[in-house]
Amino acid sequence: MRPAPRVLLASCAELPRSNADDTDLPEVLAELGVPAAWAPWDDPAAPFDSAELVVLRSTWDYPPRRKDFLAWCESVPALVNPARVARWNTDKTYLADLAARGVPVVPTELIAPGEPLRCPDFEFVLKPSVGASSRGAARFAVGERDTEAAHVAALHAVDHTVLVQPYQRAVDREGETALVFVGGGYSHAFVKGAMLPDPAAPGPGPGDRFGVEPDAALRRAAEDAVDAAAAIHGMRRSELLYARVDLVRREDGSPLLLELELTEPSLGFRQADPGAKPRFASAVRAALAG
Fold first, then answer.
1. pLDDT classification of 215: cutoffs 50, 70, 90
2. Cα–Cα distances in Å, from 264 out to 58, 82, 86, 154?
3. Catalytic residue of the set 84, 209, 237, 250
4. Catalytic (active site) residue 261
């Protein structure tokens, strides 16, 4: 008979064992003597209240039910990353908090429901403050006022605050660089293709991913972002089981933070070195001990 899981990896009903990137994490944890299993976060039969540790992983269906999801997070006795971090990080208005701490963030204007869009005179992106992947995001050229206003109205109609960000054209050439931290330490990095690409651009497109060794400027920017997030929550960086820092570049090559994922990011294990999953499993075991 299998031992009862000490660790539950929280997923969603559509992908109860996550996706191919990390489906085998229970087996990797078992190699370290840690029984683990997957369970959808909203499964009433899952023993989240008795698990020694619950790890937020692929809870990708939460955006339309964020209130319920956060209530569930707060009901779990031993959750990583913690519920207060999930509450903060599942609304992209957190970017303003990081910018206030000196993190170089893609310039972001927030438009609350009922507020009008002041159409920029540059190419820009509109996206909901609560959402996963690129759902609800759209790229606009200068002069598309009617289409822009309609997009804002559609997002406001479902009570979303809207983010307005200048489009960083370097993304079309080189994509986004995602740097992954495990247990507070840098683990690996990978490139994600542009989610809203220029069809004529030669760079990686949606769905393209490959491992990369980030340069020093990207590593420093990522370290600064993780440090700032930990400080905001009065935590040691090592208390964040994982973090994914998504960076893009200005035209001058300097890095900008696009997103800091602390709740349910894909961690790019398929693009990482073979030691990445064992590092993650070791960090889970350390969290159990500590």
1. very high
2. 5, 12, 9, 26
3. 209
4. yes
Instruction: Return the higher-pLDDT residue of 146 and 271.
Output: 271
Q: Could you identify the residue written with the tokens 């990011």? A: 265
Looking at residue 285, the DSSP 8-state letter turns out to be H
Of 148, 103, 105, the closest CA to residue 123 belongs to: 148
Catalytic residue among 57, 219, 244, 279: 244
Q: Is residue 148 annotated as part of the catalytic site, yes or no? A: no
Catalytic residue of the set 139, 223, 261, 270 = 261
Q: How far from each other are the two terminal CA atoms of the chain, in whole angstroms?
A: 28
**Structure token digits, residue 44:** 């009433």
Question: Mapping DSSP to helix (H, G, I), strand (E, B) and coil, where does residue 251 land?
Answer: coil
> pLDDT, tens digit, for every residue of 111-140?
999 888 887 788 888 999 998 767 788 888
Q: Tens digit of pLDDT for each residue in 228-245?
A: 999 999 999 999 999 999
